[in-house]
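On to our target:
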Amino acid sequence: MSLLKNRSMRFYFVFFLILALAIGGSVAAFADSPSATVSVSGAAQASESGATFASASPVVLDGTDHHALSTLSFNVYDNRGTGAGWSLTIAATTFTTGTCLNTDHNLGVTPNNFNNGASQASKITAVSVSDIAGGTYTDPTNDVGYTNNVYTGVQILADCTGSQSVKFFRATAGSGLGQFTIKPTIDTFIPASTYVGTYSSTLTLTFAQTP
């Protein structure tokens, strides 16, 4: 009887040891912590391209002042992935029927004091932003052209050489990540006293990779 009892105890001890090893192995398996990584790289630069200009409809003088509306359209691509933001400036030559001299007809300037300041015939009264299809973007947050949190527009300063650029839109830091179509609406004032003729102006659009 004593011999049988001792053998039984040894059997139970071996079974308990095997069970403990099985549990210990199971716990060790759940302790593994593999990591997943994704490498994301961005473009070296942000850019602007494809600028087009929709000319305003012809104006017929009728004794009243007129506003000629036109639209500038272009695309902005910010695939850098830095959230640094970007900005846009515009410069223009004076709307003129000739060579932008005192003897020619210009919009937005009085010939007698033309050399004392820039023309202010045109103003950006609105800027629309739309996503270019194909991605999930962070739309640009613009804070240019606002007065007391109300968008009042940006006056375009023009001279004979188009040297007076003004910032009219910017994507603040943390916004403007993606690809967008930007469309500023330009309002050109045509006073009732305007001389007849075909007036032209050259616009210069500048894109900067910082706000």
